[in-house]
């Protein structure tokens, strides 16, 4: 546990300062079971919704653990919103307007989205916000906000 806290602190300081060390070199890469997958429970692909949008996350084959907790076969959700291409899956995920972190282990949220078409996708990160060696990622969905 102490190692996880120290490693997590190094990652946070590194992200804040702009310093980047390869995640593999820092020992931050985690394995995921081959049968693990993430999915969006709600909304569903093609749905028309109003804002704020209730979003519910799903995960199969793994468990949820908060950021900073280094436990095998666990992770926490990151929601990719209107992201044109995936972030670097070998590095800790940055927190941006398009990459929402749920490091407390949350499995749902509400999003204020402007009217129009939007894409949503889940990506599981390990204790240090690094996607697993075999990324656990949902299929993207497209929704329309009225």
Brief write-up:
This protein is mainly beta and 146 residues long. It contains one helix and nine strands. The longest helix is centred in the first third of the chain and has 16 residues, at 2-17.
Helix and strand arrangement:
Layout: H1 2-17, E1 37-42, E2 48-49, E3 53-60, E4 63-64, E5 74-81, E6 99-101, E7 108-111, E8 116-125, E9 141-145
Parallel strand pairs: 2-9, 4-5
Antiparallel strand pairs: 1-3, 3-7, 5-6, 5-8, 8-9
Please describe what this structure looks like.
By secondary structure, the chain is mostly beta strands. The chain has one domain: Immunoglobulin-like, CATH 2.60.40.10. The protein has one helix at residues 2-17; strands at 37-42, 48-49, 53-60, 63-64, 74-81, 99-101, 108-111, 116-125, 141-145. The strands form two sheets. Strands 2, 4, 5, 6, 8 and 9 form a six-stranded mixed beta sheet that branches. Strands 1-3-7 form a three-stranded antiparallel beta sheet, with no helix packed on it. The radius of gyration is 15 Å and the shape is elongated. The N and C termini lie far apart (46 Å). The model is unreliable at 15-19 (pLDDT under 50).
